[in-house]
Structure formats: C-alpha cells, structure tokens
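Re: [ENG-882] Designed sequences occasionally contain unexpected residues at chain ends

Forwarding the minimal case from QA. Structure tokens:
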C-alpha cells in the first residue's frame, strides 16, 4: 500500500531542535487528508515543545506552526465539512481544537522554505543544499 510520509522540523532561533519523519500509519485517500494528518501529528509535538519551553523558561513564548498546505490550513480553520474534507477522520481534528482553545497559531509557510521536505520528498540538489543551509544555520 502507498502511505504518505509525515515530517516536521522545529527550530528555536537558528537552531534545529526536534525533527522527525515517519510513514503514516493509515493510507490517506487524498493529499488533503495526508497533509491534515501530518498537521495533527505536528501539533501534538508543537504543544509538547511549547509546554517544555514554558516550564524551563518560566514564561510564555509565542510559537507559530507553519504549514505549506493551503488545503490542510483551510480544513483546520473551517469547522464546516465539505466534499473535500468529509472523509477525514474526526481524530485528525486535534489541530482545529488547539486553535479554538488558542493554544497555538497556524500560519502558511512557502513550500520552497519547508524544511521537512528534505525528509519527506525527493528534492533537487539545489533545493536540498538550500534547505540544509537553512536547517543548520550555514547561510
């Protein structure tokens, strides 16, 4: 079966801290569903990192989650089901719940700056070198 890959990279300043790439446990029936599932997985890790940072620094640091999938962002912001999203499992709506509770903000990030693509997609040498330089701070 063809399963999508979920990937994320978190950065604090110019330092890359946790990152992960893994094959999704279920087969997505659309690219929207695969991206939205990745967003839910990333949201869980985002909240853990935010809580850990707050505990260590004893203050609230604003953190934003960037996603390059406009469709996944649309589904996260729109509580209405439509033809493109009605098949998505309810368990994947964790991101929307966290946004409703104002635990996080979700922003669109340009695809060419998406660091996790280095782990989840085939990239050209130029794109790979560009993303590596951004990830490891050797710009």
């Amino acid at each position: 079966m063809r399963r999508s890959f979920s990937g994320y990279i978190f950065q604090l300043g110019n330092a890359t801290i946790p990152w992960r790439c893994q094959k999704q446990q279920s087969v997505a029936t659309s690219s929207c569903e695969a991206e939205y599932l990745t967003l839910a997985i990333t949201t869980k890790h985002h909240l853990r990192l935010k809580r850990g940072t707050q505990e260590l620094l004893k203050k609230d640091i604003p953190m934003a989650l960037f996603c390059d999938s406009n469709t996944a962002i649309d589904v996260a912001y729109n509580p209405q089901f439509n033809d493109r999203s009605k098949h998505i499992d309810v368990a994947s709506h964790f991101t929307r719940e966290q946004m409703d509770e104002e635990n996080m903000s979700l922003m669109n990030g340009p695809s060419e700056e998406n660091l996790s693509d280095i782990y989840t997609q085939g990239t050209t040498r130029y794109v790979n070198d560009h993303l590596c330089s951004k990830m490891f701070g050797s710009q």
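QA comment: On inspection the terminal residues look reasonable. The mean pLDDT is 76. Proposing we downgrade this to a documentation issue.
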